[in-house]
Each structure stands twice: as C-alpha cells, then as structure tokens.
Amino acid sequence: MMNEHYNDSALKTWLKLYKMDSSNANVCFYIGQLLLQTSAHKAEALKYFEKAASHIVTKYMPDDPYEKDAPPLAYYYLGRALHLNYQFSDAIVNFNLFKKLLSKNDSRQKDIDYWVTCCNNGLELMKDKVDCRITNMGDSINSIYPDYNPVVTADEQEMIFTSRRLGGMNDPTSTKDSNGFYNEDIWISYAKPDGSWTMAKSISNIVNTPGNDASVSVSSDGQQLILYRTNSVGSGRLMVSNLKGTQWTYAQPIDSANPGTINSGSDETSACLSPDEKSLYFVSKRAGGLGGKDIYKISLIDSNGKWSAPVNLGNNVNSEYDEDCPFMHVDNCTLYFSSKGHNTMGGYDVFTSTGDTNGLWTLAKNMGYPVNTPDDDMYFSVSSDGKRAYYSSLQPHSYGDKDIYQVLFAVPLPVQRVAVLVGYIKTPDGSPLPNDIVVKTGLVKKPNSLKTRVNPSTGKFLQVLNSNKTYNVIISTQGKDVFNNNFYLPADSSYFTLSRAFFRTTITLGDTSNVFVPKPKIPTTTMSGKVVLNDQPLQPLANMRIQLVDNKGNVLQTTITDPDGHFSFEKLPEDKSYSLSVNVPDPKLRHLKKLYLANSKGKIVRNLDEEKEDAYLYHDLPANLDILSEMTRITAIPPKPIRIVSPDADYIEYFKYNADQNSQKESNLNALITKIATKLLKDTVTLSIESSASKVPTGAEFSNSNKILADKRAQTTKKTIINALKARHAKTTKLKFIITSSVQGPDYAEDAQDQDKYENFQYVKVFIK
Question: Which pairs count as long-range contacts for 292-296, CB under 8 Å and 24+ apart, including other chains?
Fold first, then answer.
C-alpha cells in the first residue's frame, strides 16, 4: 500500500494497527514515513520515529507480517522529524548514527550531509532572530485546504493565490489526490479600507480549468497574470492571462510569440515580470544550469514582443539545488526567491539578492528566522516600502494546511525608495472611457517615457516612480493629448497615504487644474500604547485586534497587540482625535470592569469608555497618548470565581437571560468549525456539547422551564455547527454528538440585575473528542 501512493488511506490503516499495538516499532516506522509525505503534518512524525528508533535491528524483515522492530533507516527519519521540530542538535546526532552504518560509496552520504548542514544553518539562523511579526491572513483568504502562492499588486489592493479548496472548478464530486486535496484553482481577494480583506472568490472560470491552475505572478498594476497549468498527464507550462476591463482573457502560453524561449518542457514552474515589464525572470531545469531548477532572465528586444535568449543569473543566486518563486521588487533591482541551497535551514528558504545594470548579483542572503522554517517557505512578495511581505508557509496554528501569512518588519527591508502612483481617470460626464486611452509619464525634458495601460472599466492605472523628481504626465486617446501636466514627486511623506508609498489621485479628462499638487502637510505622530487586563497583577492583553477609528466611525488602521500588549499606529495627523476599539473575542473576558490603556511609557492613562458585545472602546484620544495625564488610582480587580465549566473546551459561549441563539463573534465559531472540518478529513469526530441554564426564571417561550432553555441552547449549537460544516462541504455523516444539559447556580433571590452572579451558569461548551 505504501507504494501505491494512496497515502491518506494507507495512513488510516497503519493508525488502526497502531491503536491495536502502540509498541510495534515497525508500525510506527511506517506511520512516520507517511506523515513525512504529507504537506502539513510532517512534524507529527516525531513521536512515531522516536518509538521506532528505540527498537532497531540490523536483520530487519520488511515483508514479514510479524516484524515488530524497525530498520536502521529509522535513525535517518528520526533526524528528519527532529529537524522539522527545530531540534537541530538531536537531529544531527541521529543523522550521524545512520551515516556510520553506510559505506563510504553509499549515495545517501551526500543526502545526510545536506541535512546536517541544514541543521547547522538552523542553529546559526536562530541565534539572530529577525524582528518581525508573522500573522495568518485569516479565514477570508485561508481555508482548511492548502492555500499558497500569494501574488500581490504593487498597491497591495489585490491578492491572487492558489487554493485546493472546494469551489471554483471543484465540487464534492471532483477528483482528489492521494492526500485528499482537490485540484489547484486560482482565487482572488481585495483589500478593504480598514486593512482587512474581502472573502476570497474564484478568479474566473475562464482562467481556471478542471485541471491544475496555479498563480505564479501578477503585474504591478494587476492587469496581467502569469499562471502555471498542468494537463491530464501531469506536464505543465507557464501561461498568461490579461485583464480586459473586468474580465480575464483565456490563458495563452507565455512565449506564444517566441515558442520554446521559456516553455522548453524542462520544468518551468514559476516566473515574474519586472515592474517595467521589460524583463522576465523564470525558473527552469533546462540543461546547462548549475543543478536542479535555476532562475533565468530574458529581456525584450523589440516592441513586437520578441525576447532575448535566457541568461542564467549565476551562482550568487542559483545553487546546485532547486531555486523557485522569483519576485522582483518594484525598485527593479531587489530579487526575492526561494531556494533549497545556500544556507537554507531546510526545504525552500526565502533569500534575497540585488542586481545591477551589468547583470551582476550580490550573494544570496537568507531572510532569517522566523520568516524561514525547517519546511518550505515560498512566494515571498514584498511591499513597495519594504515594511510588509506576504508568503506561504507552514506555521503553527494554521487553518489546516499551508496558509498565507503577512510579515510585518520592525525595520523595513533594504529596498530602494520608490513611490507608487495610482491614478483613476474619469470623463467629465461619467461616460465610458475610450478603449485606446494611454498614460505616458516621463521626467521633464527627458525623451524617454513610461507608457502605461489603463483599465477601461475602472479608469485605474499604476506606475512606479522615483521620488524627488519632476515628471510630465500625458494622457492620450484617438491620437490626441487630452491631459498634460507636470508634477514634482517629493522625497518626504506628503504624497504617501496609510503610511504606504502610494500616491492616489483622480484625473478628469479635460481638467486643467493641477491635480498633483499635494495638500498642505499636517504634522503627524505615532500613537503607541499598551492594553492591560484588570488582573492581579495587571496583565497585558496579547494577540488582540485593535482598530483606530475616526470621529465619523470610519476604521483607519488595524493592528494586533504583541505578547506584551503593545500596539502602534503610524503617521496620524496631530490635529485630530481618535477612538480605539479593542476586539475581545474570548467570552471569559466579557464584562470586564477595567481594561486599562497605557501610553508608550507604560503609564496608565485611561479606562474603557464603552463596552460592546465583542469590543471595548476608548473615545476622544489624541494622536499622542503620552500627553494624557496618568491615572492616579489604579486598582486591580480581584479575579472572579472560576466558572463551573473547565478551561479546556474547544468552544465556550455565555448567554444572557432567556437567550438561546449564538451571539458570539463569528470568528470564534469559525475557528471551531475549522478545527472540526480538519479532523473530519481524517476520521469520525465526536462532539460533546454541555449546556447550562441558571435558576433565574425563564419566559413562556421556553414553557417557563430552565431545563428546556438549557436543552434549547444545546440543540441550537448543534444545528449551527452542522449547518456551518455543510456550508464547507464537510462530511457531517461522520459526526457524532453527545449532549448533556443542566440547571445550575445559586437559587434566584430577586436580584436579576446582578448578572455576574448568574451568567456564569448560562453557557454552552463544546469538546472535540
């Protein structure tokens, strides 16, 4: 069964054997191997290889059904599992144990040396941790299925990625691979004003096919998509689709004008266009490389789309191992890519190299830990200002498999400073734009100009420019110039919005006013602070979402508190006041009497002003919290008595009087549903639902019975779970329920206003067995 590639069913079979005899080292050996072949559960192989390695024999009989010991190869696999769990020193010990058993001419010697080198690299990289915060992009983008290959437009308004989920061209009857995943489809999500993202949707049934379609690269303006498409026999090639208004075109081979230039049949899996679209970087395993897959560059020779011959980027970028996923930053000289070579800590690590006008590249630099992990880290896209990056990785607390993450760097990456000009063209009367409209931007008194396409449906165009220079913008249609304007792009932040290097403007054809004149610069500052829980002693509120809100209720920025409860919002005009909304999804933290706000110096300056269902608010705050007076009397409220329910539930919800409907924030329920759906992919799941009602008299809608109310809460929760799982196409037939309900708490004393006294006993709790 191991050789039939039915990994999922094979793993289930071996796990059943393990339940029958958990001491069988041979069973553990096979389970570990199967787990190493999964994409998201490799690290779980450790406990099985540890058992296997404790019973190793040299006279191992793999075909003997009564064999209970493991072969010496278990040392090697134990090293692999330890490496994936960051136990690099112990991994090296086991790799060397296996190496001693091999002859000097054994081809596996090189493989062991490679993994020992990766472990040593990991030990070194973890000594100098990169100061950054890695955040899961959330369930608007990620799912219980593998989600990866994020590509982002230069203005960070669109994210296109690959997913193996239901939807798009996949339905419950679609073909799955040996790990139970559907074919690859391309999905898209759009940025919201508050920094969150819209619920992802299939990009187009014109782009997606019944086979595998994976996102590879998107042009800076989001109007050209490079994808990798495989056919029914598994071979693939790079394709390109263009956005015409709101519709994508049918994908064509990327080298249709010069067949064979790129798609040579030598494993060309990824590519990216330079920001000026005059060069293309692509990956190929063609003959003449340095080993494995290498990154090559071709350049446009003429205006007819003819490309030059491919040039290997050389051994400062390429290695004897595989390279993949090139991404050229909008500065047009900083390359990011993934590699299994150089000083990787294992699998594909993200590296960077800088090129010059002579085609020379600096030595590849590892992006460091925790950006890189012992597994594959790929498709690293960096924002124009170098402060953020997006990539796919296997990090703790994923939604079920590979997920897409955002990296926030404490110190911006060393990219060259550029500005992204985002323009929106409209007609004076709102009529449709001409289809032949063209924007040309160039330095004043310089003959060369940058010609840019305009989306005829939205009027949007995007250009990457160098700051501290004067430009001339000409918009032409039907052979005539309908707009001609000069503007100076300064080096300071007056043209930047949302702390990002974007300059947005709307141009009305025929308007002679200077739309590029910046508004008077208003002094800005950074709001830095800390949120503290009313506990003994005062405790920071970590990993909570905080929204910065203006006086009209608009969300301006969103961030997450760090482990010490700290947060910051940059470049806020000093002449305005703001509100903070602290999202508190944990029901155990409801009804807090004090949730303190501290300034950047750690001094407590405010208590909460308003409490909502899932958030606490502070109003009328200045941009600089340090100017607020310190609160003179800070008293920690003693912790409340521990609730009857134990803290190990997978989901807890507390109810108000006479309520049976789920009122908790949707994200909390989504987390539970994700956890259940992930487990259903492997086996039957039993849910234990415990519900309770207090002894406060209930209403006629529950027949004046608190027991009926408790029963109703349990049944409502069960129904909610089933409906949510069906919406995700999970197999609810594999779901079992154990339901108990009770009436608890103190006898009612005509004091319903004392909600804390009774609401401790008004809950539903869900356990995943």
Answer: 292/319, 292/320, 292/321, 292/322, 292/323, 292/340, 292/341, 293/267, 293/269, 293/322, 293/323, 293/324, 294/318, 294/323, 295/323, 295/326, 295/337
Distances 721 to 38, 680, 737, 766 between C-alpha atoms, Å: 28, 13, 11, 10
CA dihedral 311, 315, 317, 318 (to 10 degrees): 80
In sequence order, what are the residues at sequence separation of 6 or more whose Cβ sits closer than 8 angstroms to the Cβ of residue 12?
A: 682, 683
- What are the two backbone dihedrals, phi and then psi, of residue 202, each rounded to the nearest 5 degrees? -60, 135
Query: What does the block give as tokens for 541?
Result: 């509120």
Tell me whether strands 323-328 and 311-312 are parallel, antiparallel or unpaired.
unpaired
pLDDT averages per 10-residue partition of the chain, 769 residues: 54 90 94 90 92 92 90 95 95 95 92 96 95 91 93 94 90 78 93 88 93 93 93 79 93 86 90 91 93 93 82 96 96 96 96 92 97 95 92 85 92 86 80 83 78 86 82 83 78 39 55 46 84 74 85 84 87 88 65 74 84 79 89 50 50 74 58 82 86 82 78 90 83 88 83 68 87
Count of C-beta atoms within a 10 Å radius of residue 177: 13
Residue 528 tokens, joined: 């830095």
Cα(136)–Cα(241) distance, rounded to whole angstroms?
Answer: 29
Please tell me whether residue 96 adopts helix, strand or coil conformation: helix
Distances in whole angstroms, Cα of residue 401 to Cα of each of 143, 183, 721:
8, 15, 21
Residue 594: helix, strand or coil by DSSP?
Answer: coil
Query: Residues 522, 543: contact at Cβ < 8 Å?
Result: no
DSSP annotation of 121: H
Which pair of structure tokens corresponds to residue 17?
A: 């054997």
Q: β-strand 615-622 against 247-248: which pairing, if any?
A: unpaired
Question: Among residues 354, 349, 497, 372, which one has the least CA distance to residue 413?
Answer: 354
DSSP 420-465: EEEEEEE-TT-PPPPTT-EEEEEETT-S--EEEE--TTT-EEEEEE
Main-chain dihedrals φ then ψ at residue 75, nearest 5 degrees? -60, -45
CA distances from 374 to 142, 528, 619 (A): 21, 34, 45
Return the pLDDT at 649: 78
Q: In what order do the strands lie in the sheet with 763-768?
A: 651-654, 763-768, 685-693, 735-743
DSSP annotation string for 695-742: SSPP-GGGTT-HHHHHHHHHHHHHHHHHHHHHHTT--GGGEEEEEEEE
Sheet strands (E) in 584-684 = 595-599, 604-606, 610-611, 615-622, 651-654
Q: Please name which of 144, 145, 184, 179 lies closest in space to residue 168, comparing C-alpha atoms.
A: 184
CB hemisphere CA count around 569 (13 angstroms): 30
Lay out the sheet containing 545-549: strands in order across.
555-560, 545-549, 577-583, 615-622, 610-611
What lies within 8 Å, CB to CB, of 27 at 6+ separation is 14, 17, 18, 21
Backbone angles phi, psi at 17, to 5 degrees: -65, -35
**Backbone conformation region of residue 308, classed left if phi is above 0, alpha if psi is from -120 to 50, else beta:** beta
In the numeric block, the tokens 């005899």 are attached to: 21
User: What is the predicted pLDDT for the residue at 515?
Assistant: 44
